[in-house]
UniProtKB/TrEMBL annotation, chain A:
Keywords tagged on the record: Activator, Nucleus, Transcription, Transcription regulation
PANTHER family, A to Z: MEDIATOR OF RNA POLYMERASE II TRANSCRIPTION SUBUNIT 18, MEDIATOR OF RNA POLYMERASE II TRANSCRIPTION, SUBUNIT 18
Oligomer status and interactors: Component of the Mediator complex.
Predominant place of localization: nucleus
GO BP, sorted A to Z: regulation of transcription by RNA polymerase II; termination of RNA polymerase II transcription
Domain of life of the organism encoding this protein: Eukaryota
Protein localization: Nucleus
Protein name in UniProt: Mediator of RNA polymerase II transcription subunit 18
Source species: Trichodelitschia bisporula
GO molecular function, one term: transcription coregulator activity
TrEMBL record, chain B:
Location of the protein in the cell: Nucleus
Pfam families named among the record's database cross-references: Med20
Quaternary structure annotation from Swiss-Prot or TrEMBL: Component of the Mediator complex.
GO molecular function annotations of the record: transcription coregulator activity
UniProt main location, coarse: nucleus
Entry's family note: Belongs to the Mediator complex subunit 20 family.
Its job: Component of the Mediator complex, a coactivator involved in the regulated transcription of nearly all RNA polymerase II-dependent genes. Mediator functions as a bridge to convey information from gene-specific regulatory proteins to the basal RNA polymerase II transcription machinery. Mediator is recruited to promoters by direct interactions with regulatory proteins and serves as a scaffold for the assembly of a functional preinitiation complex with RNA polymerase II and the general transcription factors.
Keyword Transcription among UniProt keywords: yes
Superkingdom, natural source: Eukaryota
Gene Ontology terms: biological process: regulation of transcription by RNA polymerase II
Protein name as annotated: Mediator of RNA polymerase II transcription subunit 20
Length: 259, 247
């Protein structure tokens, strides 16, 4: 067992376009996308719990060569800095019956093991492209307590919301249409039972759906792969231009760094 | 319901292949061990960075282990030992805090990349250790895994020989009540558990002494409760206790 037998690196970058569609036009868009894909959309109901680091990053500012060096002990190297800290998410699928009054009570009385996934999303890279590109990693937690893991990593729970919508795959593009719901009263922990639907409210009261078009890249360093992905997103944008305007998102609105 | 007793004997600084082959020969000869095939592990350790909080200086650094055991081929175990300081500062410094999860082995490389590229403010990589050409055997109720422990980069590449022994045992009276096939579990006293653990420990110790290995071995023990050994979390924790070496 050597490093040569290590599993290949999963694709760690994705190309993104975003758009919005009103609640009244969402069914029509979904039908059109299903027609293009030749598949029925898959319903999604996901819980996203956000975690924030408990401490500030260690920052070592280099204020010029001589000042930096004289402050160091022999053999000690100057550290590079500053280093960012990021928000993380724990995500899991939700069963519809968890959002009923009975389901919520049942969850309160027992602990049903759920399959969680750690999701890391970086701020999109700067630069002019026809789609945003960002570093993104998903880690399935197969065994163990994911919330205890986050605490051990010095992260504390911040908030959570429910994403409800549909997802389908069209060639290499994963297209998601979703809205976010938040509990009227927030819970103390990420793993607390979910409140029933009557206790959830839309994050955007207008009911507008987010449309996300996403391509995972197998190799960020390969320009051919990136260009192929960009062209595929361009084709999708052109096909849907009469229905929805898919755009490059403002990268700072997707900034996951801790300020 | 079975519990598990595990021990790792670490012979530091043992001379490479000679010791390992000698150890294997003696073990197989004296115990009539049946070979189970190749075995190995890969272990990475990271250390928490210093915080700019003044009170964090009273807490030792935490260790972040990434461990792949070949006997759990589909899993990579993540062990974080030390734990964060409690918000009110009343954490018991004598209590070893440990959090263990398992992720798919197929996602190990991306996890390592994530720590390296985006978690540098919290974690600093330290060493990478490996058992590359180890072996596994079975002798009666005891499972044996052993191999040369090497550091993948840097000086002092060969650390020694590690030998893992594991057996299952039961605490008398623990489990189903046996009355008409009911599902009610019978709990047992801590004293009964301690006695059963001691018996298992004596059995493994006797096995090791009869193996004729000799030399001075550091031993680290762990006992897992009913059903806890099913996903390798306890075994991973034991390996990380040993592989932290000089911390």
């Amino acid at each position: 067992m050597t490093s040569n037998n290590a599993p290949p690196l999963n694709s760690l970058h994705e190309l993104l376009l975003f758009g919005t569609v009103s609640a009244t036009r969402q069914p029509a868009l979904l039908r059109i996308l299903a027609g293009y894909a030749g598949l029925q959309p898959h319903a999604i109901l996901e819980l996203h719990a956000y975690f924030k680091p408990t401490r500030s990053p260690t920052v070592v500012q280099q204020r010029g060569g001589s000042q930096g060096i004289t402050g160091l002990k022999p053999g000690q190297q100057a550290q590079a800095g500053p280093k960012d800290l990021y928000f993380w998410q724990l995500v899991r699928n939700v069963e519809e019956d968890e959002l009923t009054d009975a389901g919520s009570d049942a969850a309160s009385s027992g602990t049903k093991p759920h399959k969680w996934q750690l999701q890391f999303r970086d701020t999109p890279e700067p630069g002019k492209r026809s789609a945003a590109i960002r570093f993104a990693v998903n880690q399935d937690v197969v065994h163990g307590d994911p919330e205890a893991y986050m605490q051990a990593m010095e992260y504390r729970y911040q908030s959570r919301h429910l994403l409800e919508g549909h997802r389908l795959v069209y060639n290499n593009v994963v297209i998601s249409l979703y809205r976010a719901f938040v509990p009227r009263e927030d819970s103390a922990t990420a793993l607390s039972p979910l409140p029933p639907r009557s206790q959830l409210q839309l994050l955007d009261p207008s009911g507008t759906y987010i449309v996300e078009a996403n391509i995972r890249l197998s190799d960020r360093s390969n320009p051919t792969i990136i260009n192929t992905g960009l062209k595929e997103l361009d084709r999708l944008r052109t096909q849907l231009r009469d229905i929805i305007d898919l755009k490059v998102p403002d990268r700072l609105k997707l900034d996951t760094r801790v300020k | 319901m079975s519990r598990t007793a595990s021990v790792i004997f670490f012979l530091p600084g043992a001379q490479e292949a000679t010791s390992l082959s000698t150890l294997i020969e003696r073990l197989v000869r004296t115990t009539n061990g049946n070979p189970l095939g190749k075995w190995g592990l890969e272990h990475r350790i990271l250390r928490s960075t210093a915080s700019n909080l003044a009170d964090d200086k009273t807490h030792p650094p935490r260790l972040h282990h990434i461990l792949h055991l070949l006997n759990w081929p589909q899993l990579t175990h993540i062990v974080i030992s030390g734990g964060p300081p409690s918000p009110n500062g009343n954490a018991d410094p004598t209590q070893a805090l440990e959090t263990i999860i398992a992720i798919p082995y197929a996602q190990q490389a991306s996890y390592i990349q994530l720590l390296k590229l985006k978690m540098g403010a919290l974690w600093t990589p330290r060493t990478v250790l490996q058992v590359a050409n180890g072996s596994a055997y079975e002798a009666g109720e005891i499972t044996i895994r052993l191999g040369d422990l090497r550091q993948l980069v840097g000086p002092g590449a060969h650390h020694g020989v590690v030998c893992f022994l594991q057996m299952q045992f039961e605490v008398p009276g623990e489990g189903e009540d046996g009355l008409g096939g009911g599902a009610m579990e019978v709990s047992v006293s801590p004293e009964a558990v301690a006695m059963a653990e001691q018996s298992a420990k004596d059995a493994l110790t006797e096995f090791w002494q009869n193996s004729g290995v000799g030399g001075t071995a550091r031993e680290t023990w762990r006992f897992s409760g009913p059903g806890e050994a099913e996903n390798g979390l306890g075994e991973a924790g034991l390996w990380c206790d040993v592989l932290r070496l000089r911390k």
